[in-house]
Amino acid sequence: MKAESIREKAAHVLPSSLERMSHSSFWVNHVKNWLWVFVRSVLLAGISFIILYPILIKVMIAIKDPVDLYDASVVWIPKHFTLRNFLLVSESLNYPKVLLNTSLLSILVMVCQTLSCVLAGYGFSRMKFRGSGLLFGCVIFTILVPPQTIMIPTYLTYKNFDILGIITFLTGKPLNLIDTYWPFFISSILGMGLKTGLFVYIFRQFFRGIPKDLEEAAWVDGSGTFGTFMRIILPNAIPALVTVMLFSFVWQWNDSFFTGMVLNETGVMSSMVSGAWGQIMFYLRYTETSLGMDPLYASMIRNTAVLMAILPLIIMYLFVQRHFVESMERSGLVG
Amino acid sequence: MKQPRVGLTLHQRQKYKGVWFILPWFAGFLLLFLVPLINSLRYSFSTLKVNDNGFSIQSVGWANFKNALFQDEHYVRTLTESMANMAINVPLIVIFSLFAAVLLNQKFKGRGLVRAIFFLPVILASGVIAAVENGDYTQGIIKSASQTSSGEFALFRNLELAKLLLNSGVNYQIVQYLVGAVNRIYQIITASGVQILIFVAGLQSISGSLYEASKIEGATGYESFWKITFPMISPLILTNVVYSIIDNLLTSPTTQQIRDTAFKSYQFGLSAAMAWIYFVVISLFLWLITMLISRKVFYHD
């Protein structure tokens, strides 16, 4: 019964497909196609492995017991599984507090930076007068100048912070803003934070793609410039906003240049990771004398610390990545 | 009777209101960028001493620059090293990211997952995490342990391939370059997250009808890549080259040295001079590259 129906169908289909198959080019194409799919899969799998490798290696090191370090038969998969490393890092480096500090700082920077950049980007996309091109050239210029060039004056600015001599006049001496969050707030709200020029550029490209008719209609209906911006432009700019917010958050989280320069005392992730070694050695000497001086063990703990520093980012990425990839595609960075 | 126009038209008024939007950025540009930039230039011509109530400056002319270029034993070497590194890495990064973007733009099963993995370096490759990556004991042990089983064989194969290429008459320098690229594959892949993202976005914006038309005309995939994809994406190649150069330079050994000179040996003037030399070299390099590439770039409109 079944076979019959298949045969019937086959009889219907066969003549044309047989004819096609009889050409050698059909088979060549077929093989070519499969070969390409195979090569592509191998390539993609290989590259994915290279990208994931450091994370995998860190996970494997972090869940190992110290006993396994000297077991030559243990390379990847540990024999003694443990979560003690995580606990140790969390205690010795004060992880919960660092996590809170870093999250707060990154969120603060993200919000301020996005705000100043979306305003500037919109302004640049709509403003046309003599010199506006030059002004935008300044944005590009801020991207091109390496931050190291203005590093020392920036440091001194925050060390002796003063606005036109007002603070010296009031209190007798300028403010020292090193080791506070103020430098981050000031630089990001004024659009001069990390890679801010790039964000302004992204927003400007995006807003140039939004037709002006939209705003004109709003003006005709009696909406003011800022009202139009809030109610018409911003809701349309969500893809670009998401992209910039994610970049801004992540780059602040990972940044060691500006953060290392401005914050010495307050613990945030990037300084925690780079200073983890000494701190852990110090902690171990007072708690576990047997393991305290072992460089291998310390390295193991340091790997755990790095893993714990990037873990929140990875978790966040898992949730937003789909949105992120889509929004990047629609954010008009490509003109 | 036509009334004389008072003030500005609606459009003109809106244009000038744009200025208000730029104001915060502009204030930041003046106070936190231009002033420090000029100050930094000033410091590079002087010695700077930080004391309890601020700092004092003494002009020394070109001494800092002379010191950086002719006396400091590391600076010139580090600088050439960073520039050479960049000149090697940037083409590889751009080519790899274009290749990866073309792969990711095709339709296959699990594309979402693969894309998510490919863009992971955007998050992880920057800053301190990459810095800790090198020279770590435990990782080194695992690496060498894995190498005794498979890695050595791969290395061997790598050399064989190099020999094969040399014997078939490929230029020695090119072979060295390729072998070096294979060895630095991790560095290159992790540095190309953003570039892949930009290329993928660019590829999506190419209209599919172009490919359809060329297919009907009998073009192969290879031909349509060089005749359609490549010209359409060429403005982005320029963008990506510039981005890669800047990104590469942020983590170069020179920046590390500039930082150490300032904050470890407290030679602020010397550090500023080094930073300025660095900036001038980069600018020249960028200008040259942009001139060369923009000649070939195809603009659709």
How would you describe this structure to a colleague?
The complex is a heterodimer of chains A (335) and B (301). With 335 residues, chain A is mainly alpha-helical. Helix content of chain A is 74%, strand content 0%. Chain A is flat, with a radius of gyration of 29 Å. The N and C termini of chain A lie far apart (60 Å). Chain B has 301 residues and is mostly helical. Chain B has a domain at 62-206 and 232-295: MetI-like fold (Orthogonal Bundle), CATH 1.10.3720. In chain B, 78% of the residues lie in helices and 4% in strands. Chain B has helices at 10-44, 63-71, 75-105, 111-118, 120-124, 128-133, 137-167, 172-183, 185-190, 193-204, 208-216, 221-250, 253-263, 268-296; strands at residues 46-51, 54-59. In chain B, strand 1 (46-51) and strand 2 form a beta hairpin. Chain B is globular, with a radius of gyration of 26 Å. The relative contact order of chain B is 0.12. Classes of the chains: A mainly alpha (335), B mainly alpha (301).
Strand count of chain B: 2
Name the chain pair whose interface involves the most residues.
A-B, 99 and 92 residues
Number of domains of chain A: 1
Order of helices and strands of chain A: HHHHHHHHHHHHHHH
- The arrangement of helices and strands of chain B along the chain is HEEHHHHHHHHHHHHH
CATH architecture of chain A: Orthogonal Bundle
Structural class of chain B: mainly alpha
Mean pLDDT of chain B: 77
What's the CATH topology label of chain A?
Answer: MetI-like fold
Distance between the termini of chain B: 44 Å
How many H/I helical runs of chain A?
15
Bin the strand percentage of chain B. Answer: under 5%
CATH fold descriptor of one domain in chain B: MetI-like fold
Largest sheet of chain A: none
Q: Tell me which CATH architecture of one domain in chain B applies here.
A: Orthogonal Bundle
Number of helices of chain B: 14
The CATH top-level class label of one domain in chain B: Mainly Alpha
* Contiguous runs where pLDDT drops below 50 for at least 5 residues of chain B: 147-156
